[in-house]
Amino acid sequence: MNPKILIVEDNAQNRLLMVDILTVHGYEIIEAKDGLEGIQFAKLHKPDLILLDMQMPVMDGLEAARLLKADPETRSIKILAITSFAMKGDRERILAAGCDEYMAKPIDTRDLPVVVQRLLGLEASHGS
Ligand code: MN
């Protein structure tokens, strides 16, 4: 079975971009449009990885990450934070909230699958 990835992002265009990239790589994708829906879908679908936008209405990514990591049901799910702010101290705040890794926007379409694969513990094969 292909790994399942939950994409939590309020911007439909960004969401579509990430869905497109990861679908091509064979992942099963679930989409949520804010942090609250993200938490609900994480519990419902038990994804292997969550891509979590930091700036969202209803519930932002930092709060969603804290809640996901505080809940025994969801705490083992890896979180890749997606952020458009990159000020001093943001990285620390994001990691302190429980995110495993973070990527800055705009999303690098070549980097994303590499980081996702690493977080899922899937090493790229080199043909040997
Ligand atoms: Mn956003």
What topology does this entry show?
Blueprint: E1 4-8, H1 12-24, E2 28-32, H2 35-45, E3 49-53, H3 61-70, E4 78-83, H4 90-96, E5 101-104, H5 111-119
Parallel strand pairs: 1-2, 1-3, 3-4, 4-5
Helix pairs in contact: 2-3
Structure description:
The chain has 5 helices and 5 strands; from the N terminus they run βαβαβαβαβα. With about 130 residues, the chain is α/β, with parallel strands linked by helices. The chain has one domain: Response regulator (Rossmann fold). A 5-stranded parallel β-sheet has the order 2-1-3-4-5, with helices on both faces. Strand 4, helix 4 and strand 5 form a beta-alpha-beta unit. Helix 2 runs parallel beside helix 3. It is globular. The relative contact order is 0.18. The model has no long low-confidence stretch (mean pLDDT about 90). The structure holds manganese (II) ion.
Spatial shape: globular
User: What proportion of the residues form beta strands (DSSP E)?
Assistant: 15-25%
Got a strand count?
A: 5
Radius of gyration: 14 Å
Largest sheet: 5 strands, parallel
Write out the distinct hetero groups bound to the structure: manganese (II) ion
Strand order of the largest sheet: 2-1-3-4-5
Instruction: Kindly report the name of the CATH homologous superfamily.
Output: Response regulator
Q: What's the structural domain tally?
A: 1
- Helix percentage: 25-40%
Helix and strand composition category: alpha/beta
CA(first)-CA(last) distance: 23 Å
